[in-house]
Design a protein that fits this description.
By secondary structure, the chain is mostly helical. The chain has one domain (34-155, 188-316): Up-down Bundle (A middle domain of Talin 1). 79% of the residues lie in helices and 3% in strands. It has helices at 2-30, 35-47, 49-60, 64-89, 96-116, 119-122, 132-151, 159-164, 170-201, 206-218, 220-231, 235-260, 270-285, 297-316, and strands spanning 92-93, 129-130, 263-264, 294-295. Strands 1-4 form a two-stranded antiparallel ribbon.
């Protein structure tokens, strides 16, 4: 039964990613926005829905470790594995805004995650957790992030070409995006549920499940959306999806979860949080290595290797 659910889940993920990518690209053309901006907002927030649902439900059940581990693992999965696989398919060009603003914003979000989790080190509490006040601050930062992204959005350079293209009807765009997201979320949930049940039956710890299987399952929408975007020649949308999802996971997902109830780190360690920050910095470094202002295939291999090295460390230290 679990095998059947895995197959059905993967099928729904692939179909949903295809429609979400086409619908988002049509939305970008209609409102004369760059595909990167649409990936950073619409696609990123939509594909972060599984992380939001899982983390909020975990918070409601008093499992802060699962909520934080889900976000930590998802960000590593996104920034290392998803971006690495997408870049292997099609190298990602980086604009000056990506290097000067977008990627550094992701680094800043990772630093804030580390700060709000270091209560003992900072002397603000007897144990590490994310409190309600910190959750509210993270949510406010998410509002600032979205507002800044939308109001600073620039029309694509080929705006004149966009205007003469036949526009997709708005009702069809909405159906494609909403339907694609629904298929991604439902398919990801089927896949994730089966994988987690198998892991628990094998006696794997909660923190390892959260950072590996749970995070990987809830990140399947991002993986599918980014890979399909790359296959369709929309590498900028894949990059926007990864960056936007990681920022949304920290500001929106953890912010909403911590606002509901304080989140205790449990088995999530400083090594895990520092690895998230390190992955963000590594992404920024790739802009200046090999082919400047471009993430190329050699860097993609480095990102993928870094992810599996971390997973190997996690499993060996559970």
């Amino acid at each position: 039964m679990n095998v059947i659910l895995l197959i059905v889940g993967l099928a729904l993920i692939l179909v949903g990613a295809n429609y979400l990518t086409d619908g988002s690209a049509a939305l970008a053309r209609r409102f004369k926005l760059s595909e990167f901006i649409v990936g950073l907002t619409v696609v990123a927030i939509g594909t972060s829905t599984p992380e939001l649902v899982v983390s909020v439900v975990s918070a409601l059940h008093g499992s802060g470790e699962m909520a934080i581990g889900n976000v930590t693992g998802s960000n590593l999965f996104n920034g290392l594995l998803i971006l690495g696989v997408s870049t292997l398919i099609r190298p990602v060009p980086l604009t000056s805004d990506n290097i000067k603003k977008d990627i550094p914003l992701g680094i800043l979000a990772s630093i804030l995650l580390l700060v709000v989790c270091c209560d003992v080190l900072l002397g603000s509490d007897l144990y590490n957790n994310i409190g309600r006040d910190e959750g509210i601050i993270l949510l406010l930062l998410f509002v600032v992030f979205i507002s800044y992204t939308v109001f600073s959005a620039k029309a694509p350079e080929d705006e004149e070409v966009v205007e003469v293209q036949k526009q997709t009807p708005m009702w069809l765009i909405i159906i494609m995006i909403v339907g694609g997201l629904a298929a991604l979320v439902f398919g990801g949930n089927l896949f994730q549920t089966s994988a987690v049940e198998v892991a628990r039956a094998l006696g794997v710890s909660e923190s390892v499940i959260a950072i590996t299987l749970l995070a990987g399952g809830t990140s399947l929408p991002e993986l599918a959306a980014s890979v399909v975007s790359a296959l369709k020649g929309k590498a900028e949308m894949a990059m926007g999806n990864v960056l936007g999802s990681n920022i949304s996971n920290i500001f929106l997902v953890l912010g909403a979860s911590a606002t509901i109830t304080p989140l205790s780190l449990g088995g999530i360690t400083m090594v895990d949080l520092l690895t998230v920050l390190g992955a963000s910095i590594l992404l920024w470094i790739t802009a200046f290595s090999f082919k400047r202002n471009k993430i190329d295939r050699p860097e993609a291999v480095i990102l993928i290797i870094a992810y599996f090295v971390y997973i190997g460390y996690m499993i060996s230290h559970q």
